[in-house]
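Priority: medium. Attachment 1 of 2:
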């Protein structure tokens, strides 16, 4: 084979064949995370922004932040991970957040195919009191995700990120915000692990 022909073959290989092969074997270059929340007085929204910032710090991660009522079928099903935030209402998630989960079936029809199966899920909450039901609320959110066969992770705290917003600890302090960022980062990292390891 002449030198010229060898060069043409090598050039063709590097220009066309290898990139096409790589594209076919690698998953898409982004991970998409949906951060869905309810907030009446702004505290949970602040935590949502922290989760967004943490997730965005992981290269190649696209984040969509929306109030639960604004989430579309496309938002939900195109996300690789869903992080749900709620204020604590009577030691549980707010009605708006419960309706959001109910609508996964009533509006979007996730069952019986388990359309959310294999997506990463996580939770964050804010509550007025130190011991007013934050962990119960986190767990009820995670329970809804587990029922949908999602891959549930924590971060920030044992069951997710949380903040106390009233009494001696008004608003969201820097440590609580750091917990929210930690959660967002972890969700993005795990979503990448799941995506890279996907058989799809
Ligand atoms: C109807 C209602 C019920 C609440 N119940 C609780 C509760 O059980 N435990 C608690 O710690 N805080 C409770 N709170 C306080 C809120 O969880 C807290 O103010 C929260 O940070 C509000 O979040 P937001 O600013 O995002 O709306 C309640 C507030 C409302 C309006």
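Attachment 2 of 2:
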């Amino acid at each position: 084979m002449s030198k010229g022909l060898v060069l043409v073959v090598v050039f063709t290989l590097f220009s066309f064949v290898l990139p096409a092969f790589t594209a076919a074997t690698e998953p898409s270059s982004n991970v998409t995370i949906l951060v869905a929340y309810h907030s009446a007085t702004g505290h949970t929204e602040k935590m949502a922004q922290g989760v967004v910032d943490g997730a965005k710090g992981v290269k190649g991660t696209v984040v969509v932040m929306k109030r639960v009522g604004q989430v579309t079928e496309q938002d939900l099903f195109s996300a690789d991970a869903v992080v749900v935030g709620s204020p604590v209402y009577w030691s549980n998630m707010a009605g708006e957040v419960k309706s959001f989960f109910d609508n996964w079936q009533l509006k979007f029809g996730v069952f019986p195919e388990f359309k959310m199966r294999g997506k990463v899920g996580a939770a964050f909450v804010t509550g007025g009191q130190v011991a007013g039901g934050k962990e119960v609320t986190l767990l009820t959110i995670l329970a809804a995700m587990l029922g949908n066969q999602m891959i549930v992770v924590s971060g920030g705290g044992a069951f997710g990120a949380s903040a106390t917003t009233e009494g001696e600890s008004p608003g969201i302090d820097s440590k609580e915000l750091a917990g929210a960022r930690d959660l967002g980062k972890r969700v993005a990292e795990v979503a990448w692990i799941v995506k890279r390891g996907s058989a799809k």
